[in-house]
Amino acid sequence: MPEALLEIRHLKKYFPVKSGFLNRTVGQIKAVDDISLSIRPGETFGLVGESGSGKSTVGRTAIRLTEKTDGEVRFKGIDLYGLNAEELRRLRPKMQLIFQDPYSSLNPRVRIGDAIGEALLDHGLAPKEEIRDRVLDVLAACGLSAYHIDRFPHEFSGGQRQRIGIARALVLNPELIIADEPVSALDVSIQAQIINLFRKLQESRGLTYLFISHDLSVVEHLCSRIGVMYLGSMVETAPRDDLFRNPLHPYTKALLSAVPIPIPKLKRERIVLSGDIPSPANPPSGCKFHTRCPFAVERCKEQAPEFRHVGGERFVACHLV
Ligand code: SF4
Fold first, then answer.
1. Residue 254 lies in domain
2. Is there an atom of ligand 1 within 6 Å of 295 CB?
3. Structure confidence by residue, pLDDT tens digits, 8-30
4. Is the beta carbon of 296 within 6 A of some atom in ligand 1?
5. Ligand 1 mean position, distance from CA 295 (Å)
6. For the chain, which ranges sit under pLDDT 70?
């Protein structure tokens, strides 16, 4: 048994930029540009960064919902990109994705029980007569009631719809769940309930999560380790407490400075980044963060910093660390 449930090595995903009458490729968007990370069984790894940083593309390529450009992904030691379509289909139930907006993936005319049960049927994971019981079990595990099984998607609140999204993934008995901004569209009080549900399910079912969010305060409550992405690259990974107590990368410092602290006496100095995130089709030279970094020196414009081990379980990409 490999130590990591999910192992990503030098993952790259580039999208072609097309232009002109002949639709020629004139460039590439480097959505994911040489990312490595590993997640242990039962662990929750948080992936954070601004919109456009490539987090969601990492999530999708990590379970081969989107094809990679380069690099390696292993799930339980199995080379995911070495599998043929049938082998991948058989493994698919073990790796599930939960979206920000589960409503968009639900057919408004299909009852919730059928929407949850259809994946079981598609994968041949349960005989028809067992499906209803399996769906009822998973509804209960997700805090929904038995009568919900015959309801339609529009009859549910945002929080309940996310519970349905979780139930659809859970019914397949997965080991790894990629949760892509699963609480971003919800009110803060509902967010807390859904995060508690994720935690409870992890304890009872030994799940492993890759939890993607633009919001550090969301991952703080759930994740044991956190990776921070900027423009397709990982700039820092660290155990949660180390990252929150002592962020090392200037971008992590800026993100954290915007997170409210519950202790009024403790105040963090707010670091406001200038400008918007540059286009990944035309990223800055050297350190991609140099156009917004308050600490940038001349070298940063020319030389990309290496993503280095800096002790313990910490890795950082910055010339000054
Ligand atoms: Fe800032 Fe330079 Fe470090 Fe990049 S390498 S984060 S520009 S100090």
1. 249-321
2. yes
3. 999 999 999 888 888 888 888 99
4. yes
5. 6
6. 1-2, 260-268
